[in-house]
Amino acid sequence: MSKIDFTAYDTKDFYDEMFDENNNVRPNYKMFLERLEKLSHKKLKSLQYATDRAQLSLGMTFNVYADNQGVERILHLDIIPRIIGNSEWTLLERGLQQRIKALNLFIQDIYNDQKVFKDKIIPKEMILSSVSYLKQLEGFKPPKDIWCHITGSDLIKGGDGQYYVLEDNLRCPSGVSYMLENREILKRTFPELFEQLGVKPVYDYTHTLRDTLEYLSDKEKPVVVVLTPGVYNAAYFEHSYLAQQMGAELVEGKDLIVKNDIVYMITTNGLQRVDVIYRRLDDEYIDPLVFNKQSLLGTPGLFNAYIKGNVALVNAPGTGVVDDKAVYAYIPRIIKYYLGEDMILPNVKTYICDEEQDRKYVIDNIHNLVVKQTDASGGYGMLIGPKSTKKEQQEFITKIKNKPRNYIAQPMINLSRVPTITDDTIEGRHVDLRPYALYGDDIKIIPGALTRVALTKGSIVVNSSQGGGSKDTWVLNR
User: Fold this and answer.
1) CA-CA distance, 73 to 467, in Å (whole number)?
2) What sequence ranges are listed for the domain Circularly permuted ATP-grasp type (predicted)?
């Protein structure tokens, strides 16, 4: 039976995380590679098949809204992990803590004193024109002055081996349940390696999440619930998983009622007051009396109860303004302004199409750039210039000219690759990294992350809705 062999593995033109440009194994992967090379191709396939079956049995599925067939899919877990050394992770940890602290101060400022506008750090009209800016929150301060309790920033590693923050996710960051379940599955796949390598655990995420939520209430034993849009939501598995692991009730909008600006959960024993809501639906759906009048997902009166300080919402409404990709370009200035520090984790160079000079550059160089719609997510509303047609480029140029505020552009970056199992061999596939941060009494970065992988050869789109998969992320103690 043929053993796993990496002699023909291609590291040309990309930064590979397991092998250097001379095909020498990097130190973090040495022990794992020794284990891998003892396996036959047949055994590796068998382990991968068992993983696929385990995901299905656990119900680790999601819906793709754009799929008219309405088929539930698993977020394919490739069993070759991504391995990150301790010093590398420490840098990521420091950079994310810095970024989240500054962004929280920024959100507090734009809804209150607005000093950042007066000092001309960021254009006021850019924030006020964001679809996620909520005028109803002006003058409001959330419990403990924390807006972004849960963050899932997306990072990439470029061809230079340097990490860059690609975007921030502060509204309802998803995917953490896959990080946790991926770990449980991989511990059964390679049990001996976790102890030998000294992989940091992630199992206490839900305990830390519960502590973070309870921190927002002054009650000794606050009632915490997870608010879901329902079973047809793409991330329903995650909502139910987190509620179960935290020992919190999973509720829909119809399970809550507001009386005298107090939120109650309807139970078989009558009404029970709710203190903290971890909501997994966007701002516009939480309260039909204030936002989307047609919404059947939220609870009438919920927003007013929040404004009155009678319930905590996580994440706070209005945080999505930071997810706006036009705001992203200003984050280096935001960090410097609020913290007096240089950015630890750099942004990708970004051109703002709303600014005339940048817009002209983007239009002239669109064939070399990645153009993104500022309020889109999931890999949609995007043009990858080097892989696009002249017709597609022209369509985006027209869109940019019509609504420049809605677009930014960035240079094409060769995302790093990690070996990934394909139909008949192992090949490098592009990856990104989504670490999770919890902001309670301090900012904790979970020592692991969801690594998303573009399963299609040559693709740099890692989103699950676009056919991406995932890997377990091992952070080493040394």
Assistant:
1) 10
2) 81-454
Per-residue model confidence as pLDDT tens digits over 327-336: 998 999 999 9
Residue 337 near residue 365 (C-beta atoms within 8 A): no
What architecture is the 351-411 domain classified under in CATH? 2-Layer Sandwich (3.30)
Looking at residue 66, the DSSP 8-state letter turns out to be T
* Token pair 């090949």: residue: 427
| Residues sharing a CB contact under 8 Å with residue 146, sequence separation 6 or more, in sequence order | 104, 216, 316, 439, 440
Domain with CATH 3.40.50.11290 in the chain: 204-314
Fold (CATH) for 204-314 = Rossmann fold (3.40.50)
Q: What is the pTM of this model?
A: 0.92
Q: Rounded to whole angstroms, how far apart are CA atoms 381 and 360?
A: 20
What is the spatial distance between Cα 358 and Cα 256, in angstroms, rounded to a whole number?
48
Structure letter (DSSP) for residue 24: P
Cα distance from N-terminal residue to C-terminal residue, the chain: 35
The answer to whether 311 and 276 have CB atoms below 8 angstroms apart is yes
pLDDT tens digits along 38-53: 998 889 999 999 998 8
Which residues in the chain show pLDDT less than 70? 1, 61-73, 377-379, 464-466
Q: How far apart are CA 67 and CA 59, in angstroms?
A: 19
